[in-house]
Design brief:
It is built from eleven helices and 15 strands. By secondary structure, the chain is α/β, with parallel strands linked by helices. Strands 7-8-9-10-11-12-13-14 form an eight-stranded parallel barrel, surrounded by seven helices. Strands 2-3-1-4 form a four-stranded antiparallel β-sheet, covered by helices on one side. Helix 6 crosses helix 7 and helix 10 packs parallel to helix 11. The structure holds phosphoenolpyruvate and manganese (II) ion.
Length: 345
């Protein structure tokens, strides 16, 4: 951390700040410039130190030098994290496509989708049993029955299950069925839920909040890592902006940016990111060209009849077209499309 003093800060003010830094058990290195005096602060600096020092006399600004997150940071862990669970592998050049309906609606719908996406190259399936809906009157998911249907689809296809958990009290139940626990955009900053998934042994797919910054996403991941769960994958799913032609604004620059900052695998969800099925094949390809380690795509055998997110769901033909484009990009960028395997975590 560095403390930048005002140009008119007096010598006693600088000395006072040095004393305050040292009284916190930190070391100070003042640098006297022509205009500003800057105090470099060395030691185990916390947010509380930073806030308290920023209101000292003569202080212009206090800046962080290191990332606020540690376990998620590339500064601490350079090599990319590779996550393997059941049929899913992601990270380190292995590109995972996770596909399936927004929500589990019936046995037939889930089995047809799981078999279709597996045949076309997905290595895991998605499907929400617990659905966090904007309106309390919308379909909320089949809950326990949905989890059982997902387990049946895994039995039939061998595909790992990625499904959302919306409450800390449900983590135990959902972990009995899911291979990967999804924490949705609305819950990115539900710290009790983050701690609960951090305490369990299932990999976690953490989605960016529609209004969350990338630092906030990384700090949310830090909660999970800090509880001892090292298997966290991040997912860009678009943010809310003034643009209304697409459902959210899919900020693909976050993919290479996050790769610079963190060793965790990065997925992109083009379905929620744009909200219109016609745009998804190209945005999937663009996400992979930007370096995404995986895609989370909504696929429904009959999007017109979907109970949730039909307009952004691909049918199996459109998913096939998307996979054809994706394979070309993966080849061009030197990655490998992860095949459904049976490796354990
Ligand atoms: C989902 O993936 O089904 C979902 C609800 O997405 P998000 O949390 O990104 O809105
Ligand atoms: Mn959805």
């Amino acid at each position: 951390m560095i403390i930048i003093m005002n140009p008119e800060a007096t010598k006693p003010q600088v000395e006072h700040m040095i004393e305050r830094v040292e009284s916190m058990g930190l070391r100070s290195r003042p640098i006297y410039g022509e205009l500003h005096t800057v105090i470099a602060v060395v030691g185990d600096v916390t947010d509380e130190h930073r806030e308290s020092l920023s209101i000292g006399p003569g202080v212009h600004e206090v800046l962080r030098v290191q990332s606020p997150y540690k376990l998620a940071s590339r500064e601490v862990h350079h090599d990319p994290t590779v996550i393997r669970t059941g049929s899913l592998t992601i990270g380190g050049g292995q590109i995972a496509v996770i596909a399936g309906p927004c929500s589990v609606e019936s046995r037939e719908q889930m089995l047809t989708t799981a078999e279709g996406v597996k045949r076309l190259g997905a290595c895991a399936m998605r499907g929400g049993a617990f659905k966090p809906r904007t309106s309390p009157y919308s379909f909320q998911g089949l809950k326990d029955e949905g989890l059982k249907i997902l387990a049946e689809a895994r039995e039939a296809t061998g595909l790992s299950i990625v499904t959302e958990v919306v409450a800390a009290s449900d983590v135990e139940l959902v972990s009995q069925y899911a291979d990967v626990l999804q924490v949705g955009a609305r819950n990115m900053q539900n710290y009790q839920l983050l701690e609960a998934v951090g305490d369990c042994d299932r990999p976690v797919l953490l989605k960016r909040s529609a209004s969350g910054t990338l630092d906030e996403l990384l700090l949310a991941a830090e909660y999970i890592l800090d509880r001892g769960n090292p298997n966290v994958m991040l997912c860009e799913r678009g943010i809310r902006t003034f643009e209304s032609h697409v459902r959210f604004t899919l900020t693909l620059a976050s993919v290479p940016y996050l790769h610079e900052r963190t060793h965790l695998p990065i997925l992109v969800d083009p379905s929620h990111g744009v909200g219109r099925s016609s745009l998804i094949p190209k945005m999937s390809a663009a996400a992979l060209a930007a370096g995404a380690d995986g895609l989370l795509i909504e696929v429904h055998p009959n999007p017109e009849m979907a109970l949730c997110d039909g307009p952004q769901s691909l049918n199996l033909d459109a998913f096939e077209e998307t996979m054809t484009m994706c394979r070309k990009i993966i080849e061009a960028t030197g990655g490998t499309l992860a095949e459904a395997t049976t490796a354990e975590v």
